[in-house]
Amino acid sequence: MTGPDAISTNGSATWADALLLSFAQAGYLRAEPAILQPAEPFLDLSGEDIRKSLYLTTDPSGEELCLRPDLTIPVARDYLASPRAGEPAGFSYLGAVFRYRGGAPSEFLQAGIESFGRQDRAAADAEMLALALAATTAFGVSDVEIRTGDVALFNALIDALGLYPVWRRRLIKDFNRKLSLTEDIERLTLSTAPGRNEYEGVLAALAGSDRKAALALVTDLMSIAGTTNVGGRTVAEIADRFLEQSTLKAGALPRDAVTIIKRFLAISGDPDDAVLQLRALADDAELDLTAAIDQLESRVGFMAARGIDPRRTRFSTSFGRGLDYYTGFEFELHAKGNGAEPLVAGGRYDGLMTQLGSANPIPAVGFSVWIETLTQLGKPAAKGGAA
Q: How far apart are CA 319 and CA 328, in angstroms?
């Protein structure tokens, strides 16, 4: 049994009441999306790697379904299907999610908030962090480490450097998925132009092309050959590989760009100091990063207005949560001295709503609360104490 009744039987009703009350008092309506969800959005947004963690089934029509592995996508889907789609709206939740986790229970509780449609992004970001801190307080955990970052800054830097599109995609993918970005930069810096290749003609045809043109060419070639995949790789994956090879053949990643990227990734610490270092970097490199830096500075101001001391916050330009759909502010709250797993984690994901079918972009930001970890660490606050 899950939900409030199950929580009560576990003797944790006090923190559940306090947590949900703090969310309600902040104006976030309770959302209760269906447990059974279409699997496609999760596979599309997180990749096939997530399949091994999902509990899957198929309905009589052949549609692949799954038990919800998290609540962000289900809440977003319900919002998009509602009359309020496109309008500012905020939702909170507390319910069971289902993922294979090795030796840990596959059914566990997740709480959180999702905010859709707010155009005041910096203020909304700061509100999420403040509510996340209130969530830890509801469990009696107040001594936390605040880690923040902003993938929009890295994206702005790569755009301003004017790199080949394939390099841009590769570096941003590495950053988002917490791969070895520094290692990949070093490899791309070396002269990687291959020798004679059996696909020399294809590589020559793709030189300087964008992804759309590469995909069209490879699709045509594979259509002529009468195949849709090679070695399990899709047309899109093969096109990306050819485009990468053609770009690498044209030369290495420029060393001046590498120097700038490394300097950027080394910036961390107090967010106010980070703003100054970022502006100095932009001036020295003659890059226009003004909009992204202004957004960071505005967010820090709204955080301070909500009583969050910037000096308590560790900002790092290299910080990322390892998910492709984040587009800006990202954060994690960790227990002091025991920070392997986050207590609360979230960020901005403005691109998700169009990926889920929205005709127009809709700003979105939110966070999830790791109930198990907080329950183990904290003692429930008095009812209403987290408001």
A: 11
